Amino acid sequence: MSARKSYRIACIPGDGIGKEVIPAGQQVLQALAASQDGLRFEFQSFGWGGDWYREHGEMMPADGLEALRGMDAILFGSAGDPDIPDHVTLWGLRLKICQGFDQYANVRPTRILPGIDAPLKRCAPADLDWVIVRENSEGEYAGVGGRAHQGHPIEVATDVSMMTRAGVERIMRYAFRLAQARPRKLLTVVTKSNAQRHAMVMWDEIAVQVSREFPDVKWDKELVDACTARMVNRPASLDTLVATNLHADILSDLAAALAGSLGIAPTGNIDPERRYPSMFEPIHGSAFDIMGKGLANPVGTFWSCVMLLEHLGERAAAQRLMQAIEAVTADSRLHTRDLGGRAGTAEVTAAVIHRLHPR
Ligand code: ATP
Ligand code: MG
């Protein structure tokens, strides 16, 4: 008998539909624990985000990271509020956690789930399976730069894409290792070294260097612009991709749309060294247009819960949840509006839970 395990999960619903999909994710995880011996979750919720900002002038408390530090994982909804500038919500909460806990690998799987009318189905086999690895700690979003002579005709402003050898080496190594663990052992290194002549050239050099540690991984290099076309025209030629913070941000939104909806796609902000808790979240934002109406698709959150379980080493539970999700997407009566259906958040959640207790 394996020891009874109880995982401490921090839940940060954040703003907008985050407040709807994260409770749905908790319900699904509870149902999973109820149906599997030895698996337990203790949830602790944190009401950070836009409302917290209106009350306290910051998106999360100064000692917020301390409160999260002892957790096994974090389930995050979304940060974004029409009344608060985007860079405040982003830097004040999500990026604070990603950077505070050095979650340097952002991992975004894309598959065409059963029953989903994905734009990509027209050009790809249904078993399309990509993982995009995004550098999550530096690069274009390092926050380096500034403005001078603000408002004057001579005003200058810079956003410096800052890359370190250590930062590039660790994300390359993570991506090669991930590609090596997947059946096709195929990695595409996304670059823009034809136009960006310093950091991206180092990025390319480090790819060559790290590749020598992984002789069994087939890899190639692709310019980011060409990569967007390749995702549409030759999708099956891709498997694992690694790209910088900005490039992967764009490519993964494209991937999510090609797979059918922003509402489905999951992501993990991972500290591969496991010094700190990793954070899992649907890739969609706060979507205030549908907030409070019970219309939000919770599948992106459920799939993020699958990634969370895999990260915790609970592979059987992860597999069971993924099967329940796929059984639900396969039934078009259980599609939410973003997928062209009429089901609501509660109905989809109940259907997934039902499939976790088939008897
Ligand atoms: P943010 O500013 O926080 O990024 P947003 O308003 O830009 O939020 P997104 O979540 O990025 O919204 O998504 C864009 C649109 O896609 C939304 O306005 C919404 O209509 C739709 N959408 C996103 N996520 C979902 C979901 N889970 N279920 C249904 N529709 C969704
Ligand atoms: Mg958005």
From TrEMBL:
A Pfam family per the record: Iso_dh
Among InterPro entries, the record links this protein to: ICDH/IPMDH, IsoCit/isopropylmalate_DH_CS, IsoPropMal-DH-like_dom, TTC_DH
Q: Where is the signal peptide?
A: none
Please name the GO terms that the record assigns under molecular function.
Answer: D-malate dehydrogenase (decarboxylating) (NAD+) activity; magnesium ion binding; NAD binding
Q: Which UniProt keywords apply?
A: Manganese, Metal-binding, NAD, Oxidoreductase
Required co-factors: Mg(2+); Mn(2+)
Is Oxidoreductase included in the keywords of this UniProt record? yes
Q: Which SMART domains match?
A: Iso_dh
Q: Where is the Isopropylmalate dehydrogenase-like domain?
A: 8-352
The protein's Enzyme Commission number: 1.1.1.83
According to its UniProt record, which reaction does this protein catalyse?
Answer: (R)-malate + NAD(+) = pyruvate + CO2 + NADH
Tell me where on the tree of life, at the top rank, the source sits.
Answer: Bacteria
- Family membership: Belongs to the isocitrate and isopropylmalate dehydrogenases family.
Q: What is this protein called?
A: D-malate dehydrogenase (decarboxylating)
Species this chain originates from? Ramlibacter tataouinensis (strain ATCC BAA-407 / DSM 14655 / LMG 21543 / TTB310)
In the UniProt record, the gene name given for this protein reads ttuC
